[in-house]
Write a structure and sequence with these properties.
Helix content is 53%, strand content 8%. The chain has 334 residues and is mainly alpha-helical. The protein has a 3-stranded parallel beta sheet with strand order 1-2-3. Strands 4-5 form a two-stranded parallel sheet. Helix 1 links the parallel strand 1 (6-13) and strand 2. The chain is globular and about 75 Å long. Bound molecules: adenosine-5'-triphosphate (ATP) and L-tryptophanamide (LTN).
């Protein structure tokens, strides 16, 4: 508990530009949570280093991610939005937790297997221990709940296992976190291959809608979206392409599947895709305007970053000190 509320923790990697999947699966659901929880969100720049980055571009992407969090509606005065790399406790706790994590556990991680296959020329140790750093992010703040997409569930499980193992040895040091998976928009699929998740690192730019895409680009990408044979707008396992578009449409309009099926009865895929494109462009337009304002206001953004970096570092230091003491590391002489 913090300030009388349960603690919520989440974050995204600072790689590339966010997609509609990141937005509908995560960000959009986060903005209302600060009423119920004390919320912390990290710009996960250390995790991004598991893939080779161009330094200048990477720095820009991290700041852009920070601004997108705020533009999407997360108020930085109410939500502690900070840079992971600015709080040294993450890497320090990560080392300790790594000593309580088995290779057998890490070997089972599907994200590692997927990413190793994708970056066969750079299967580094960071990619392998990625879940340990993620566990450190979460446990450092004693988080009760962690909102993530279904693809991150396995990382939440290993975080819980590490926390329970540590607690069994040393007493109640860590809060054991729960995953919080939003009901709608949990997994948005690629527009070019509806069996694959929409991902910001997809090589095919038509596969993903990026949050900063212009309206005409958004509409064009939806027009080109892969659908299924037939012409009926209906939700079903046999129609992954159309079902994905229906999920997206439902998330942005709030309509359920039955209402959407009715709306497009007797109409073809063309009309449907155009409607989805327009609804998405309309949803993203205010976010894009706010983003541009924020990126132009260096003083404001810098002051929010500084304030929240300090707040996060303060919370983190409390847990870290407790852990260091429990495992028997010698205290510094004051
Ligand atoms: P990458 O393609 O580089 O692996 P990513 O697009 O999967 O990145 P992450 O930074 O790994 O993005 O994820 C940020 C958050 O967005 C996580 O909570 C993740 O579950 C969610 N998310 C990512 N892609 C989708 C998607 N297609 N649908 C729903 N949620 C998603
Ligand atoms: N691995 C996550 C990003 C992430 C994260 C976290 C999410 C890093 N640390 C802590 C929640 C809590 C992803 O979405 N790819």
């Amino acid at each position: 508990m913090l300030n009388g509320k349960k603690i919520l923790y989440s974050g995204m990697q600072a790689t590339g530009t966010l997609t509609l999947g990141n937005y509908l699966g995560a960000l959009k659901n986060w903005v209302t949570l600060d009423e119920e929880y004390e919320c912390l969100y990290g710009v996960m720049d250390l995790h991004s280093l598991t893939v080779r980055q161009n330094a200048a571009e990477f720095r820009k992407n991290a700041r852009s991610l920070y601004a997108l969090y705020v533009a999407a509606g997360l108020d930085p005065e109410k939500n502690c939005i900070y840079y992971q790399s600015h709080v040294s406790g993450h890497t320090e706790l990560s080392w300790i937790l790594g000593c309580f994590t088995y290779m057998g556990e890490l070997n089972r991680m599907t994200q590692f297997k997927d990413k190793a296959a994708k970056h066969a020329d750079n299967i580094n140790a960071g990619l392998y221990t990625y879940p340990v750093l993620m566990a450190a992010d979460i446990l450092l703040y004693q988080a009760d709940v962690v909102p993530v997409g279904v693809d991150q569930k396995q990382h939440l499980e290993i975080t819980r296992d590490i926390a329970q193992r540590f607690n069994a040895l040393y007493g109640d040091v860590f809060t054991v976190p729960e995953a919080y998976i939003a009901k709608s928009g949990a997994k948005i699929m690629s527009l070019q291959d509806p069996l694959k998740k929409m991902s910001k690192s997809d090589e095919n730019v038509n596969a993903a809608i990026f949050l900063l895409d212009e309206k005409d680009v958004i509409i064009r990408k939806f027009k080109r979206a892969v659908t299924d044979s037939g012409c009926e707008v209906r939700y079903g396992e046999d129609k992954p392409g159309v079902s994905n578009l229906m999920d997206i449409y439902s998330c942005v309009t709030g309509r359920d599947y039955a209402a959407i099926e009715k709306e497009f009865e007797g109409k073809g895929y063309g009309d449907f895709k155009l409607a989805v494109g327009e609804a998405v462009a309309e949803e993203l337009s205010p976010l894009q305007t706010r983003y541009r304002e924020l990126m132009a206001d260096k003083t404001y953004l810098d002051s929010m970053i500084k304030m929240n970096d300090e707040k996060a570092a303060y919370y983190a230091s409390k847990t870290l000190r407790k852990v260091q003491k429990k495992v028997g590391l010698t205290e510094k002489i004051k």
